[in-house]
Amino acid sequence: MCNFLFLLALGVPQASETLTSSGVFLLQMGWGDLGAFGEPSKETPNLDQMAAEGMLFLDFYTANPLCSPSRAALLTGRLPVRNGFYTTNGHARNAYTPQDIVGGIPDSELLLPELLKKAGYINKIIGKWHLGHRPQFHPLKHGFDEWFGSPNCHFGPYDSRERPNIPVYRDWEMVGRYYEDFKIDLKTGEANLTQLYLQEALDFISKQQASQQPFFLYWAIDATHAPVYASKQFLGTSQRGLYGDAVREIDDSVGKILNHLQQLGISENTFVFFTSDNGAALISAPKQGGSNGPFLCGKQTTFEGGMREPAIAWWPGHIPAGGVSHQLGSVMDLFSTSLSLAGLQPPSDRQIDGIDLLPVILQGKLIDRPIFYYRGNELMAVRAGLYKAHYWTWSNSWEEHSKGIDFCPGQSVSGVTTHTQEEHTYLPLLFHLGRDPGEKFPLSFASEEYQQAVERISGLVQQHRATLVPGQPQLNVCDQAVMNWSPPGCEKLGKCLKAPESDPKKCSWPH
Amino acid sequence: MCNFLFLLALGVPQASETLTSSGVFLLQMGWGDLGAFGEPSKETPNLDQMAAEGMLFLDFYTANPLCSPSRAALLTGRLPVRNGFYTTNGHARNAYTPQDIVGGIPDSELLLPELLKKAGYINKIIGKWHLGHRPQFHPLKHGFDEWFGSPNCHFGPYDSRERPNIPVYRDWEMVGRYYEDFKIDLKTGEANLTQLYLQEALDFISKQQASQQPFFLYWAIDATHAPVYASKQFLGTSQRGLYGDAVREIDDSVGKILNHLQQLGISENTFVFFTSDNGAALISAPKQGGSNGPFLCGKQTTFEGGMREPAIAWWPGHIPAGGVSHQLGSVMDLFSTSLSLAGLQPPSDRQIDGIDLLPVILQGKLIDRPIFYYRGNELMAVRAGLYKAHYWTWSNSWEEHSKGIDFCPGQSVSGVTTHTQEEHTYLPLLFHLGRDPGEKFPLSFASEEYQQAVERISGLVQQHRATLVPGQPQLNVCDQAVMNWSPPGCEKLGKCLKAPESDPKKCSWPH
Questions:
Q1: Å from A49 to nearest chain B CA?
Q2: Which of A4, A458, A39, A10 is nearest to A290 (CA)?
Q3: What residues bear 3-oxoalanine (Cys) in this entry (chains A, B) (predicted)?
Q4: Are B143 and B113 in contact (CB under 8 A)?
Q5: Which of A180, B169, B217, B474 could form a disulfide with B84 if both were Cys (CB 3.0 to 4.6 A apart)?
Q6: Residue A107: pLDDT above 70?
C-alpha cells in the first residue's frame, strides 16, 4: 500500500505496520535565531542538523505578528480575520488571549486535530494553547485527546487577588499554577518547564509507538517568550545570555525528540515541522529577545522581522536531505499539508488559506501564491514573488514609543517604520525582498518595475478583499470575571479562587 | 616526513611528492552575504559547501573597514597604523590608494610572498593589488612572481584628460585599461573580468601542479565592489539583483577552483582561506551593496558590520569537516598562519599583530587575544572575549549624511551611530556581542559587569598603546602627476598619456 498516507493515515497502522505521525514544534523565535539561519553564535546544533537532514524554508511566514492569532491560524488553516482571532476595538491593533479575554476559538471553526481524529489519530498538545481559556474553548473540546500545559502566557507572578496565576492543565483539569506549583524564578530565569514538556513529548511518542497508534503532537513550548526561562543545567551556557540559554535547551530538546523517533524506528513515519508563531520580540532584546537576522523590526509588526519565521521540515527517507525551498509558505499550510498527508480533504464549506506543501516538499515544486500580512482587522501588506507592497505602515504610536516601547530598536527607516498609522492604499510602498530583504529602500513610484509589480499585487488584493467574509471578532471583550479563578480541578487542589463580579468591557489593545 | 609543513614547505616537493600550497580568496563582501551565514536567498552553494567541508569562523575580522589598509595588513601581518596604511590628515579618517596617491607599501615592510619566496614558493596575485601603484610599489617588487590585475579600484570610465583609466597588468607591464580594453558596462553591469580571473587561477594552479612547485595564490577579485559587475551568463540570475549576480559568479568560481584542486589531486596539499577585506558597503545598497547580516552599519565604520567578515578555512584531510570556531581571528593571522605552515618564523625585528591559527584550525583550541578596530590613526574600539568597548564613535559627518551618504541605512542607534566624532575614552561604550550582536544596547556604566569588562579591556588598550610605534603614514599626500598616465608597457600599446605637472597636496579624506 502506498505510504503516501504517511502523516495522517486513517485508523490503525497499515499492514506494513507503518506508524503515521506528525509533530509540530512551535515557539516564539526569530528567523535569525538558528545557526542554520545565520545566528552569529551558532548554538543550535540539533536544529541545524534537522535542517541538514530535512528541508529549510527561507520564505516561511506566520499568519499574524502575535501569538494567539498565529496559533489559531495554524490549527484552522485560516487567517485570523476569518477565524475570529482579531479585534475591531481599534484599527490595525494586535490582540491576543490574556486571561481576562472573553472570546476564544469558536465552535464553528474546524481544527486540525478534530479532522485528524476522524482519521484515527491521537492528538496531543504540550505547552501553550492560547486559543481561549474558558471551558468551551478547552483544547480537548476541539479535537485534542491530551494536553499538558497552560491556556495563557506564563506571565506572573500574580497576587491571586487582582489576578490569579495561570493554571497548568493535564487534560481536563488543572494540576497546579505557574509560580506556585510550577516555579519560574524571575531573578535567575530558572524553570524546569522545558524539561517537563520534553519528557511529556518523549513519553507520548513512546506510548503511541507501543500502541501502534498514529499521533499528532503539537509541541507548543514557550521558554523563549518573556519572561524567558531555562533549566539549571542550561543557565549561563550560552553566549547570548538567558534567551540563548532557553534556545539551547529547546535545541537540545528537539535533538532528543528526533533521536527518540529514530531510536523507536518511527522517524521515517513521522513528519516533523519546526517553526515559530511570530518574529523575535525585539522589545525584549537583548536580555529576553531574539534575533530576526537581516530583517526589519520584530513581533507586533508586519515588517519581515515580525512575520518571517525559521522553518524546517523533517521526514527522513522522504524529504531529501539538505533541501532549501523559496516557496512562500505559511503556518496555515501545515493544516492543509497534514490533511493531504492523511488523505483527507480540507473542509469545503469555508475558505481555507493554507495550501498543501507536499508538492514543494517532496517534488521541489514552487507554487505561486501571495502572503497576506494582517495586523488586527487590517491588511497591512502583501507579498507576491519577491515583491512586498505595504498598504499601511506603522510600528507603534508616538505615545508608546516615547515611553521606550520600541518594536524596531536600532532600526528606523524614514516613512516606513512610522509611529502614526500611515495609509498607502493608492500608492503602496513597494520593496524587492531579494535585493532589499531589510525593507529599507522603497522602489521609486515612477519606475516601470513599481507599476508592474503593484498592478499585479493590487489585483490579488482586490480578489482577496472581494471574497473575504470576516469572522465574528473574538478578541474585543475583556472581563476580570473570566480569569482563571477556578479552573476545573481547582477543588481537588484547594486552589479555587473567588471571581469578581462580571464587568465586561472593550479590551484595550495599545498596538 | 611529517606533513605539518603542508602549506608553505621549503623548496621543492617532499619525498612524498606533497605539493604544499595556499590560496587566499579576498573580496569585498559582508558577513551576511553567504548562505552559510544566513543570507536569506541562500545562493552560495559552493561557498556553503566549502564551509561544510572546512571550518567556519564566526568571529573573524578585517584590520580596517576599508580595502587598501586591510590588504596591507593581510600581507604584512601588521596593523595599518604600523605598516603605514593610514592617514594623519584628519582624525579617524579612512584612507586608501586612489590613483593620485603618492604613497604605497614601504620597502621596509616584509610581505608574506617575500618570505614564502625564500621557502621556494611561486606567488601569484590575481586581481586588485591596492598597495600603491607607483613603480616602487609594484607587487613583483614585493615578493610576487606573477600578477594579473589592477593596481587600483575599477572606478571609471575616465576621460584620459583629467584622469586616466586604471591599467590592467600582466606581471611587470600593463596589457590594457579598464573600460577601454577590459570592458565594464555600467548600465547593464556586464563584465567578464571574474571569468578572466577564474581562468588565470585555474591555469596557474595547473602549471604549479605540473611543475610540482608549491604556490601561494592570492585571488583578490573585486566584482562585488561598486561598480558591481558580472558576466553575461550570471546577469539576472540572482534574487538579489546585480550584487547577487556578482556573488553567484564568485561562488561559482570558488567552486570551480576547489574542484580543480581536487581533480588535480592536490586539495589535501592546499590550504585555502576565504574572507573579505571589509564589510558590505551599505552605502551602495541595495543595488550594489551586500549584507552584514545582524550587524550594525557597514564598510567605513568600526561597528561590527564594517569589520566582521565571513571566513572559511578549507583543507580536506586536515581540517575536520563542519567545524565552527569562535576564535577571534584577523586577516593578519593569515600571515602568521601561513608562515607557521611553511615552518618559517615571523620576522623578529618588528611587531606582528597576526597570530598562528593552526592550533585553532587543527586542534580546536581557543586563543585569548583582543581585536583592535582602527579607523585611520585612531583606535576606535577593542573587542576582548564577547565584550566590545568603543572609545570613539562616529559613522560619518552630518554634512555628508545630509547629502545622503549613509553608512548605516535604516539603522540608527542613539549615541552610537553618531554623526560627530564622539570620544568615550573615560567611559567607553560597552556591548556584549553575544547577547547583543547588533551593538544596540550599551551596558549600564554602573553595572559590575561593565566595570569588570572595561577594566580588562582598558588594560589591553594601555599595553597596546604603550608599545605602539606608528609607521610613517603613506596615505597623506596626493598628486595628479602620479596617476596611471604611463604605466610600464604603455608604449607597446600606444596607451601612454601625458602627466600633468607635479602638484602634491594633502589628500582629502571625507570620512
A1: 11
A2: A39
A3: 67
A4: yes
A5: B474
A6: yes
